[in-house]
Amino acid sequence: MGVLINLFVGLHIIGIAALLGGFFTQMKAMGQGTARFVPAMLHGALTMLVTGVALVGLNQADGNSVNTVKIGVKLALLIVILGLVYVKRDEEKVDKRLFGLVGLLTVANIFIAVLWT
């Protein structure tokens, strides 16, 4: 079971890398007001959602304790991120404040995962 959990942790990290990497590739465009949500951001957020849910289930099935409050906060942030990226995915330009909010929420999600014990 440990190998399977570690596999999903790796996939979860790949998802966050795609989401944050997509954000970073658009930062210069954000300064010019022409940033857009790239497909990598949507796919990364979806990957995070699927693997995160799988990780909670696998950890509970393995008898590990899960901090449900932490998971709930992370899920809420991810749903906001996913909603914004999904709704605005076809727009040529996204408001820089909205785009920055997605980056901020993504970084907050990372720090919650790492620092909240």
Q: What is this structure, in a nutshell?
A:
With 117 residues, the protein is mainly alpha-helical. It contains five helices and no strands.
SS content category: mainly alpha
| Average pLDDT reading | 97
- Give Rg in angstroms: 15 Å
With helices defined by DSSP (H or I, 4 residues minimum), what is the helix count?
A: 5
Helix-strand topology string:
HHHHH
Shape: elongated
Multimeric organization: single chain
Helix content: over 70%
- Work out the strand percent: under 5%
Low-confidence stretches: none
Distance between the termini: 22 Å
User: What is the tally of beta strands?
Assistant: 0
Largest sheet: none
What does this structure look like?
Helix content is 79%, strand content 0%. The model has no long low-confidence stretch (mean pLDDT 97).
Features:
single chain; mainly alpha
